[in-house]
Write a structure and sequence with these properties.
Blueprint: H1 2-15, H2 42-100, H3 102-111
Length: about 130
């Protein structure tokens, strides 16, 4: 116990500052704090830079992979839309070919326009004169 008390007295004596006649009337100043810079080893800085670089590269990879996946999805949508348009185009061309056939034209002329096939026909010759 005596050792602890002695140290306590010593630390108390060092910590207590009583005004002396020379310092009376002066404002007490707080002890200045010393700022110590922490020494960071260079290898720790390099490790942090490597970790940051790996993180940036990983983020870039994820962005590129996401972009590729969304573009692939869009390509598949466009292929499906193109196939549907090709089928529609083929159906319309088949319909046009049906309308252009002679039997279709004859049926339309007879049923919708009321035309009849010619039974008696004769040729008329028209003289063509030279016009001046």
């Amino acid at each position: 116990m005596a050792i602890g008390v002695g140290k306590m007295r010593q630390s108390t004596a060092e910590a207590a500052t009583w005004p002396t006649p020379a310092t009376r009337g002066r404002r007490a100043t707080a002890p200045r704090l010393q700022v110590r810079q922490l020494a960071v080893p260079q290898h720790a800085v390099m490790c942090m830079l490597v970790v940051l670089a790996c993180g940036a590269i990983s983020l870039l990879y994820l962005v590129q992979t996401s972009s590729v996946a969304s573009n692939a999805y869009r390509i598949e949508q466009l292929k499906a839309e193109n196939e549907a348009l090709v089928r529609t185009n083929e159906a319309l061309q088949l319909k046009i070919a049906g309308y252009e056939s002679l039997s279709s034209i004859e049926d339309t002329a007879r049923d919708k326009l009321g035309m009849q096939p010619v039974k008696d026909f004769e040729f008329l010759y028209v003289p063509v004169g030279v016009q001046h």
